Amino acid sequence: MRTVTGVARILDLKVADRTRLTREMVKGIKSDMRQAAEDFLDTAGLLSFSLTAENPLLWGHYAASFAGVCTIFRRGKSTTSCLSMCANVSYVGTRPRLPMSLFHNMTTRRMSGQSSEALENEIFFLSFLHKSNHWEYEQEARIFFPFGASKKLSFDRTELVGFLMGPKSAPELEHKLRVEIAARRPSVALDRASLSNQDFRIIIPHKFTRRRSKESR
């Protein structure tokens, strides 16, 4: 299988009209480049959040059908915290196009010893910060960390606000959480959400509601 570097060299030769490529060769190059792109994107770590805890669909999909737990963070001013890299997802009607030329240009710059950071960021942005507008209800924000798949990231201790139990969370789970919180971080809050009797939403304690100041956006 050709490497990204090998593919880039072949394309450069083609541009310089120094080789003749058959249709099958072109198909092979495109296939190799797609695989190389997937391998490159697999090196990125990804962590997802939601800006709301009131949507019942989120609890139904991601919190064991209302029986799980929501971890509440509030981003602070620390520039070393992983939350400082958190960015809102853009919801779009058309899938973003990821040109293979970006990978070619990135590889070319690397081969020549130049910085490819801007191209890398553009590739990751197109790949990880766009989502179908069908999922807009999630109000998702993501941290993507280039070349950091499975890597542990740190956040400021004060940014962990608390834990919110689902309306159907078991008392046993709540007890275990209270024991752990008392032993590790007594200042972290633990509370329980409830189902609204009037609206299709989850009612959460006021202390967990999202701040509307510029700092929270």
For the record, the count of structural domains works out to 2
Largest sheet: 3 strands, antiparallel
Helix-strand string: HHEHEEEHHEEEHEEE
- Structural Rg: 23 Å
**Which percent bin holds the helix content?**
25-40%
Spatially, the strands of the biggest sheet line up as 1-6-3
Structural class: alpha/beta
Low-confidence stretches: 213-217
Gross morphology is elongated
For the record, give the distance between the C-alpha atoms at the N and C termini, rounded to a whole number.
45 Å
Number of strands: 10
What is the tally of helical segments?
6
Mean of residue pLDDT values: 86
Question: In percent terms, what proportion of residues is strand?
Answer: 15-25%
Provide a descriptive summary of the structure in words:
By secondary structure, the protein is α/β, with parallel strands linked by helices. It folds into 2 domains: 1-42 and 95-125, no CATH class; 45-89 and 129-217, no CATH class. Helices cover 35% and strands 18% of the residues. The protein contains 6 helices and 10 strands; from the N terminus they run H-H-E-H-E-E-E-H-H-E-E-E-H-E-E-E. It has helices spanning 4-15, 23-41, 56-62, 100-111, 117-128, 171-184, and strands at 45-50, 69-73, 87-88, 90-92, 130-132, 140-145, 160-165, 189-192, 194-195, 202-203. Strands 1-6-3 form a 3-stranded antiparallel sheet, with no helix packed on it. It has a 3-stranded mixed sheet with strand order 2-7-8, with helices on one face. A two-stranded parallel ribbon has the order 4-5. Helix 1 crosses helix 4 (100-111) and helix 4 (100-111) runs antiparallel to helix 5. The chain is elongated. It starts with a helix and ends in a 14-residue tail after the last strand. The model is unreliable at 213-217 (pLDDT under 50).
